[in-house]
Amino acid sequence: MIPAVVASVETMLEKWKSKEGKEMEVFQEFRLLTSEVISRTAFGSSYLEGEKIFDMLMKLTVISCRNIYKAKIPISGKFWKSADEIESDKIAKMIHDSVMKIVKKRDDKVVTGEADNFGRDFLGLLVNVYHEADEKNRHSIQDLVDECKTFYFSGQETVNSLLAWATVLLAIHSDWQDKARAEVIEVFDTQNSDSEGMAKLNTVSKLYKFRSLKTNSDHLYCLLDFFFSKRLP
């Protein structure tokens, strides 16, 4: 997972260099970053397809939020649907078809002998359960889609918000920014980060106080590690 985070952050920082001295919507940049990291983690080599699925999930979320407080007449959906409902159904079908397309690709590779498993990423684990011999433990394709949605929303929004908040605090308290950067350089020098080195980052750990969110802590540590090695504007 760490190499995937490293690759995504390096790409983002390179893009930032071309925007030096200009205003930039950092929150949106973090949203794109976390989406890419989760895509790589969840879909592995199929992460480009994963990004498309997550983009569709985001559109679906926007539509849902837009209609959350709108009153609906019972049974009216059987006779008439709003433009948002039609669009929502269309996106949901596209997500379903996209997941099925990736699953079929992995099935074909195993059948032809090109691969000996369905992948060691998150989706690979789900596909294994999808093909579970015991019917009681088997997941349906809709279960796979729902699991992907949960993985995306629980990981993307939390890490995105925490990164934005950490950036604001570091911009305000530049002394902590200097301490964190010095610590990262001392531990890693010019090398890429790894789990063993991240465990030694005491200053960085103090900046991340939501330790109960263990699911996202490794993502955040690795991301913060890269940000601290560069001076924030």
UniProtKB/TrEMBL annotation:
Bilayer topology: Single-pass membrane protein
Record keyword Oxidoreductase present: yes
Gene Ontology cellular component annotations, sorted alphabetically: membrane
Cofactor (UniProt): heme
Record carries keyword Heme: yes
Family indicated by similarity: Belongs to the cytochrome P450 family.
Protein name: Cytochrome P450 CYP749A22-like
Organism field: Gossypium darwinii (Darwin's cotton)
